[in-house]
């Protein structure tokens, strides 16, 4: 089982870029998640978790608070419409 790793996410032009920390955003991202019609969001069993499922990979994400989780899900659902 993999341990949770904190990442900093930026939503830009239909994709999510992720970095190790906020200070890393001036560098190349650690990875990116292309958001398209084949992506879907599934709420996790934890209060602040969800899965972002893409064609290539499933990302398991957790937010710092329930409010932040709801905001992420709302924004992602609007993009994936």
Automatic annotation (TrEMBL):
Protein name from the UniProt record: Pleckstrin homology domain containing, family H (With MyTH4 domain) member 1
UniProt xrefs under PANTHER family: PLECKSTRIN HOMOLOGY DOMAIN-CONTAINING FAMILY H MEMBER 1, PLEKHH PROTEIN
Domain PH: 1-81
UniProt KW Repeat keyword: yes
Keywords: Repeat
CDD domains, per the entry: PH1_PLEKHH1_PLEKHH2
Source organism: Iconisemion striatum
Pfam family, one: PH
Entry-linked InterPro entries: PH-like_dom_sf, PH_domain
């Amino acid at each position: 089982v993999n341990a949770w790793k904190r990442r900093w996410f930026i939503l830009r032009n239909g994709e999510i870029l992720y970095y190790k920390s906020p200070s890393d955003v001036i560098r190349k991202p650690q990875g990116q998640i292309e958001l398209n019609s084949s992506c879907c969001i599934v709420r996790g069993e934890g209060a602040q978790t969800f899965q972002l499922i893409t064609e290539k990979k499933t990302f398991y994400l957790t937010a710092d608070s329930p409010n932040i989780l709801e905001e992420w899900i709302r924004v992602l659902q609007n993009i994936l419409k």
